[in-house]
Each structure stands twice: as structure tokens, then as C-alpha cells.
Amino acid sequence: MLEFFKQLTDPQSIIQYGGLALLLFVVFAETGLLIGFFLPGDNLIFLSGIICVLKPELLGVNLLELITLLCLAAILGNCVGYAFGYKVGPAMFEKKDSLIFRKRHLELTKAYYEKNGGKTLIFGRFVPIIRTFAPIFAGIVKVDFRMFMVYNIVGAIAWIGTLGSLGYYLGTYTWVQENLRLIFISLIIITLIPLVIPYLKRKK
Predict the structure, then answer these.
(1) Closest alpha carbon to 36 in 71, 70, 2, 80
(2) Could you tell me the pTM of the whole model?
(3) What angle do CA 150, 9, 25 make, to 5 degrees?
(4) Cα angle 193-194-200, degrees, rounded to a multiple of 5
């Protein structure tokens, strides 16, 4: 079981063993299911762009097809998250912590959402945890669904398009191919900054 989860959080293993289907599922799960907050979405999208350059047969699609399919998975994931939040509502804040749920993640998203409003659904795509809980919280506060879908689509295109294209064009450089682990760590640190700074300010 531990080995399975280890493979599930490793972008290279996901693509190598699961191919396009698992790639799409992970993006969907990270943006639509509570259990998805620990999945490596940013690194996975970036790596899939590189794969389109180095081993296109591994995914069986070109960059445009890849970005389109990933966007659809991300959009659908957010819709599921919104529906879940809309149905469950305030009860989420009374729910006790469990293996797959941490109330502090929802409270963190609430604070982020109150500061940035609907933009959270766009910029929050680039921030781990926030991208999982933002659509759920949008459902809880019953954001107008049409406006939600606008933010949902724009955010998905911005997130997937940016990281996928970046991976595709940087994947031609040997240094990038040889230092993927360093790049993955850097991506994690960069995307966590929007969470760490507000947290430190609140603690202060």
C-alpha cells in the first residue's frame, strides 16, 4: 500500500506505468476530490510536456491534444468539487479531521478566497491544496455557477497551458532532462510560497 502511494506521488511513475489515462485521472482527482490534495499536479503537467518532446509515443498525443485533454479533466474536476461543496455546505467546517480530510486546509482556502475572491479559482490553480479546496469552497458559499465556470475554464487553461508548454519547450534542453528532480523540488517550493507567506503573517 505504501509503495502504491509512493508511486502515485511520483510524476515519472504515473506517466510510465499509467500513461495518459492515469495522468488525466490524477489531474481530475487533484482538482475535484478531497483525496487529491497530495497529488503532484504541477510536476506531472510539466513532465507530460517534456514527454511530448522526448517520448511522444508514451502518451500517444501531441502537445495541443495533451493540453486540451488535461484542461477538460481539470474543468470536470472543479465541477465535481463545486457540486460536492454545494451539497455538503457548512457541515464541512464541523467535520473532524480524518486520513483524507484536514479542516485547516479548508480554513486556509477560506482565508485565501476572502482575500482574492473569484480570482482564487484562477490563481489558486497554481497553488497546491488551494486548487483542491477552492472549487469546494466556491460550492459552499454558492458562487454563481456561470461565473464559477468562467473562472474554472480560464484557470484550467492558464494552469495547464503554462506548465505544459513550459515543459514542452524546456524539455529540449539537456540540462533540464538531467535535473528533473531539482526542477520538481523547485516547483514545489515556488508554488508553496503563496501559502507560506500568508501563514507566517497570520502567525505574526
Answers:
(1) 80
(2) 0.75
(3) 45
(4) 80
